[in-house]
C-alpha cells in the first residue's frame, strides 16, 4: 500500500482488523479526542496479553481505566487519573496499579502534556513552559524537564520540556471523508497535537463518512489532514460513553455524555471481580461495536440524543423541581460553597479581575454561584473551564463542571493550551483561579494526588 492511501471502512465490524494491523505490543498510544469505539477494540484485542503500552492522555478515567485492569499498560503519562463523574476522586483500579508497581505513572499538568505533544508535532526537541517550575513535578520529571535561567530575563527561570511523540494515535471525530480528513467538534480539550506528531500515523473512527465536498464546506473544523491517517472507520456513537457535541455542525447528529453508564462503571471499579465482569459484559463479550450499541439499546441512545438538544435543560429543571425542598437546612458543603462564592466575589472586585477559572469539584460550584452574583451587580465576568469553554453561563439542571448544556452558552470554544496557556497563564491574563486541594499549607502550597509508597506526599503548586 502506498503511504498516501487510506483504508476506509463503512462498517464498524472492521475496527478489529484495523486495530490489529496497526497497533503493536510495546507502542506508545496517544488518545486524541473522544474515542470509545477504538478504545473498546484495543481492549478486546489485547486484554490480559501484557501488551506493555505507554498510554498518553490528559485524563485516564472511566472506561480507559480498563487498560490498567486488563494489564494493557506498563506506563501512563497523564494529568488526571481517577474518577471525574459525578464527583472527582481516586479510583481503586488506578490505586492498585500504582501501589503494586505494575504500572509506571508519569504526572504532568493539563497544560504541559499538550505542550509536549505540540513540540513533537512541530519537530522540536524541547519546548519552553511557565508551568510546574517550583513544583514537585519539576523534581519527579527530571528526565524530561529542567528549569534554567531565562537568557532573556535575568534573574528569572523558565522550564524546558522534552518533546513527546506517540507511536500511534486513536481519534474519534464527528465526520471524516474516505481519505481521512477529519472534523473534530469543539471544545477540543487536549486537541489533536498527539495525532499530528504520531510516528506511525492515526487511526480514525467517525460518526459518519462524508463526501470531501462536505469537508470543504466545514474546513474550519477539520483538525486532521488525510496524509496523517492510516485508516478511517464509520462508527456511529463511537465516542460513547463520552458525548459528541455538535458545535459548528448544527445539521449533524449529536449526543450527550452517558452519566448513567459512567456511574455504573465507577461503582463496578470498586471491586476487582465486579469490574472484570463489567468489562466482560460491555467490552470483551461484544464481537464488535454494533453489539455494544445493541446492548445499550435504542431507547438509551435516543435519550442521549434528546438530552443533547440545546433546550433540554429546561425540561430537566422542571422535572426536578418537585423533588426539591427549598425550606431544607443547607448542608455543610452547601454552606461552604456559598461562603466561598462570597470570598470569590470580593477577591474578583478587589483585584480587578475579568475572568474566573473554576476547578473540578466544589470550586466550580462556588465559581458558578460567584459568577451569577457578579453579573447581577453589573460586573463583566467570563467563566472558564479548562477543556476549552470560555464565557459560559451555567444552566440549572446539571452541576457537572463540563456539562454539555453549558457549551451552548459559551462565547469561545477552544482547547486546553489556549485556555490554560493564554487566558489563564498568558501575558495578558486577568484570571482569578479557584482550585480544590487535598491539603494546603499557610503558604499556599497544595497537596493534590501524588503518592509515595502508601503515604501521601505533598505535590507543591506554588
Q: Mind explaining what this structure looks like?
A:
The protein is of the alpha/beta class and 462 residues long. Among the domains are: 7-125 and 163-234, Glutaconate Coenzyme A-transferase (3-Layer(aba) Sandwich), CATH 3.40.1080; 332-456, Glutaconate Coenzyme A-transferase (3-Layer(aba) Sandwich), CATH 3.40.1080. It has 17 helices and 24 strands. Strands 1, 2, 3, 5, 7, 11, 12, 13, 14 and 15 form a ten-stranded mixed beta sheet that branches. It has a five-stranded mixed beta sheet with strand order 19-18-17-16-20, with helices on both faces. A hairpin with a 5-residue loop joins strand 21 (439-440) and strand 22. Helix 1 crosses helix 2 and helix 14 packs across helix 15. The radius of gyration is 22 Å and the shape is globular. The N and C termini lie far apart (52 Å). Mean pLDDT is 91; it is low at 453-462.
Detail the topology: elements first, then pairings.
Blueprint: E1 7-9, H1 15-22, E2 28-31, H2 36-46, E3 53-56, E4 59-60, H3 66-69, E5 73-78, E6 80-81, H4 92-100, E7 104-107, H5 112-122, E8 126-129, H6 136-140, E9 145-149, E10 157-162, E11 168-176, E12 182-183, H7 193-197, E13 202-209, H8 212-217, E14 222-224, E15 229-234, H9 259-268, H10 272-284, H11 289-296, H12 298-307, H13 312-320, H14 332-351, E16 355-358, H15 362-376, E17 382-385, E18 389-390, H16 404-407, E19 412-413, H17 416-424, E20 431-434, E21 439-440, E22 446-447, E23 451-452, E24 455-456
